[in-house]
Design a protein that fits this description.
The chain has 10 helices and 10 strands. By secondary structure, the chain is an alpha/beta fold. The radius of gyration is 19 Å and the shape is globular. The chain binds adenosine-5'-triphosphate. Adenosine-5'-triphosphate binds next to strand 2 and helix 1. Keywords: ATP-binding, Nucleotide-binding, Transport.
Length: about 260
């Protein structure tokens, strides 16, 4: 069954039609990127899926269940995880402690006293850190980590909620180019291995063309193109209104590096 289905999503802010009849589907294990220029409606679309915004029209279903207009907490309980552009971690806590807190929250145990909490879900937290390549740094305070490593911990925190669908809003923002590619490769590996669907927005075209299975191109609230990276790259309308020269180079680099 289709994991995520968005049908006819529409959202208006005053005179601005931020999303117009946006429809797409996403399967488990698939990486779907939403790209487009500033103000295209990427965040609006994203927020209608995650429950932060109620669509004026349209429907969102998760594994066949209607989640349209549900508040974010309810959407999260249905199995939709989210990572944020800005780190949502407790900086003075250890890496391990942060993931433990996420597991405690997922299991609805937030009333535990702190000393008890620190003994809980230790092994599960370490296993999650291992999955994102951060087990060796489990004891360090988050505040001491390099930015790319914070992003990995954020991914472990999102995975702590055992999501079926992961929403990632500009996951590589603020990272160095080499780190970006490593993070997206990690996300793609986990998504494919565990059949988690990933919907992401991204301004870095290298990251998109190298790691997305499919791409949606939004311009002024409307989908102007969709398809595989190859199809989107070759679309003359996308070239004209969005990708231009830099996008063509990014797509070409991605094609070469993937043989
Ligand atoms: N809460 C809001 N109130 C009024 N207008 C809004 C609101 N949110 C978004 N908009 C407008 O809707 C349009 C789409 O914005 P959105 O943030 O979805 O675009 P985006 O593609 O995510 O842009 P960016 O790449 O800059 O993040 C823009 O014209 C924006 O100004």
């Amino acid at each position: 069954m289709t994991l995520l289905s968005a049908e006819g999503l529409t959202k208006r802010f005053g005179g601005v039609l931020a999303a117009k009849d946006v429809s797409f589907a996403l399967e488990g294990g698939e990486m779907l990127a939403i790209i487009g220029p500033n103000g295209a409606g990427k965040s609006t679309t994203f927020n209608m899926v995650g429950g932060q915004l109620r669509p004026d029209a349209g429907r969102v279903t998760l594994a066949g269940q209607d989640i349209t207009g549900m508040p974010p907490r309810a959407v999260c309980r249905m199995g939709v995880g989210r990572t944020f552009q800005v780190a949502q971690t407790f900086l003075s806590f250890s890496v391990l402690g942060n993931v433990q807190m996420a597991l405690i929250a997922h299991h609805g145990q937030t009333r535990m006293l702190l000393p008890d909490a620190m003994a809980m879900h230790r092994d599960a937290a370490l296993a999650l850190l291992d999955r994102v390549g951060m087990a060796a740094q489990a004891g360090r305070p988050i505040g001491e980590l390099a930015y790319g490593d914070v992003k990995r911990v954020e991914l472990a925190i999102a995975l702590a909620a055992a999501p079926r669908l992961l929403l990632m809003d500009e996951p590589t923002a603020g990272m160095a180019p080499a780190e970006r590619s490593a993070l997206m490769a990690l996300v793609a590996g986990i998504a494919r291995g565990e059949r988690i669907g990933v919907l992401f927005t991204e301004h870095d075209m290298d990251a998109v063309f190298a790691h997305a299975d499919r791409i949606l191109v939004l311009v002024r609230g409307e989908i102007i193109a969709r398809g595989s990276p190859e199809q989107v790259r070759a679309d003359p309308e996308v070239q004209r209104v969005y990708l231009g020269h830099s996008g063509t180079r990014a797509a070409e680099r991605a094609r070469r590096s993937h043989g």
